[in-house]
Amino acid sequence: MKKIVLGLAATTCLLLAGCGAGPNAQGTPPSSTGGSTGQVGGTGNTSSGNATSNQVTANTSAPTHTTLQPFTGFTTQGIAVDVPAGWKKATTTGGDYIAVTFTNPQNHLESVRVLYSTCVGCYMNSSGQPDPRLVVGEKNPTNVQVQGTGGLVATYDFPVSGSTYVGKGMVQVSNNQSGYAEIDIAVGQEHQTLVNSIIKSFNYSS
């Protein structure tokens, strides 16, 4: 009888030890940089000093609830916009522009970029009229549409590098030659409800 009990105990121990075998999933922290490209026409300097990760796979395991909050960094320039709360902030500057990018710390491919530029000549066409299409900062934009009174607003889609995401953007130029503002949004399917809310909140009072 003792031999049978000992045999069963040994077999159970082997089975339990085998159940825990196998490699653990390993991951690297997401990059601090978003999917958006830089402003066309120059190379900017970024204030974020974090190292860029080699990880390129987005974390899209489950939708998360993201709330929006007002961004007041460009209040004196007349820009109002809501951005995702808790997303990592990085600032890039150039000769005539400043851009603030908010990146999802759980998925570096998701970002919201707000840009302000004082370059008036950049959006003036050959006839001396403002054309917001001339200052779209994203590469290879599609579905570009001019809207608003006086044609001062352009909306567009853009591909997000390293993903299948389709970003949404908007440029609004001033009617008094004070500059222009831009918003670029790159999010996955689980955050698509944020896009309309952010676009709706974006306003440039030049």
From TrEMBL:
Residues 25-34 have a biased composition (Low complexity). Residues 54-69 have a biased composition (Polar residues). The keyword Signal applies. Residues 1-25 form the signal peptide. It comes from the Bacteria. Residues 24-69 are annotated as: Disordered. Keywords: Signal. Residues 35-44 have a biased composition (Gly residues). This is Lipoprotein.
